[in-house]
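This week, think about what follows.
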Amino acid sequence: MANPFSLLLPALIPSWNFFDVIAASPRVEYALADSRDAALDAWTEFRPRPQSLSPAVMLGRLLWNPRWNESLYLVSCAERLVEEPTAHGEDEVFRRIAADLAGRADVASWLSFRLLFVDPTGGREVLYQAAPRLLADIDVR
């Protein structure tokens, strides 16, 4: 290794071109139903951001926040699903939602999710909607 500092420099001084485009992230919403063909009307935002946080909670989240890291991964999966839908991306989103619902007793048996963008004026555009899956068939490992 000729110069280890040259390898460390990009990590210390970030590039201004880190983001290709700055755009709104997709929001993930899910709906539950009793049958595959039931109307999906009651959509719920998955892991909504809290309205406010205390300074102590913010400080703690700087040091340890695995749930937020997983939510960032989910946003990354959602962005890729919008660009190029794959079974793996869809499986990952289903897996995360099903894992959060696993402890609840009042959950219907069919699960679907959709990805939508909300523009600054409040307009909502659905860019992707997954076909419903039987909740019991989703591997939440």
Remarks:
- Helices lie at 4-12, 55-63, 66-83, 87-101.
- The chain has one domain: 24-137.
- The longest strand covers residues 110-118.
